[in-house]
TrEMBL record:
This is biotin--[biotin carboxyl-carrier protein] ligase. It comes from Devosia nitrariae. It catalyses: biotin + L-lysyl-[protein] + ATP = N(6)-biotinyl-L-lysyl-[protein] + AMP + diphosphate + H(+). Its EC number is 6.3.4.15. InterPro entries: aa-tRNA-synth_II/BPL/LPL, Biotin_CoA_COase_ligase, BPL_C, BPL_LPL_catalytic, Transcriptional_repressor_C. The lineage of its organism: Bacteria, Pseudomonadati, Pseudomonadota, Alphaproteobacteria, Hyphomicrobiales. Residues 16-206 form the BPL/LPL catalytic domain. It holds the Pfam family BPL_LplA_LipB.
């Protein structure tokens, strides 16, 4: 579709692009391409997604004008390392959005969850495991899906959803969009910035050998480190202080009894919300 463009560095790196006005799911399109033999390095981007998926199979539809984009990659990396591509995606998306939002510093977010830059509160922050916040509200999300290939490698669909023109209103968490933040930029602008940022951060990852470097960048933009946190998963709630993300990408919580608990998956709530929710 005319309108979507790769950044100059993405084009030079050999990435390809297919654009749509609307589509069921960009991740489904990416994985279908893998099944048909595509070697990877191709983006699928759309202005509207009608049958998208979020974490744990939750539906993720988006109105026309928001960005849905998925990148198909087939990395030469161990299976365990491919799971850390979510952190590559988070850092890349936060950098892309940070380049679009004005650089001024703002108040603490409504959830006490803003990240920091040089010791000051920042507009864009990463929320473990796969969200990007603006002023403490969800602006974007990421979903990784894998498909094993006949040669034993895994094709990965790295999906991005960004609220450009409108945010969802029927969700149990604060959400926002670029338009609601007063930012007059299009999904085309966001995608081009994302395609450029991906090249840079994926280069740091180096087929899994640079995971530590990527995680260091992720921590530097993380929301809520040092703050009260509650993580719910499979009916269990873990409460304490969000200490860090460990070298395997797990969220580490220091409980009231001093025990350090490493969590691999869950829904995260910060600050006062962490204390109020069960």
């Amino acid at each position: 579709m005319a309108g979507f463009l790769l950044g100059a560095n993405a084009r030079s790196a050999g990435y390809r692009l297919v654009g749509f006005d609307n589509i069921g799911s960009t991740n489904s399109e990416a994985l279908a391409a893998a099944a048909a033999g595509d070697p990877g390095g191709i983006w699928f981007a759309a202005l509207q997604q009608t049958a998208g998926r979020g974490r744990r199979g939750r539906p993720w539809a988006s109105p026309h004008g928001n960005l849905a984009a998925s990148l198909l990659i087939v990395p030469d990396a161990e299976t365990a390392a491919t799971a850390t591509l979510g952190f590559v995606a988070g850092v890349a998306l936060s950098r892309a959005l940070g380049s679009i939002l004005p650089g001024r510093l703002v108040r603490m977010g409504i959830d006490g969850a803003d990240g920091t830059v040089n010791g000051h509160n920042a507009r864009i922050a990463l929320k473990w495991p796969n969200d990007v916040l603006a002023d403490g509200a969800k602006l974007a999300g990421i979903l990784l899906e894998a498909q094993k290939l006949s040669d034993g490698r895994h094709a990965i669909g790295v999906g991005f959803g960004v609220n450009v023109v409108r945010s969802p209103k029927d969700v149990p968490y604060p959400a926002t969009s670029l338009a609601e933040l007063g930012i007059d930029r299009s999904a085309f602008d966001v995608f081009e910035a994302l395609s450029e940022a991906w090249v840079e951060v994926f280069g740091l990852w180096r087929d899994g050998r640079g995971v530590a470097d990527v995680l260091a960048h992720w921590r530097s933009a993380a929301a809520g480190i040092g703050a009260p946190v509650a993580v719910s998963h499979d009916g269990r709630v873990v409460r304490g202080i969000f200490e860090t993300i460990d070298d395997d990408g797990r969220l580490v919580v220091r409980a009231e009894d001093g025990l350090r608990i490493a969590i691999t998956a869950g829904d995260v709530h910060f600050g006062a919300t962490a204390s109020a929710r069960s």
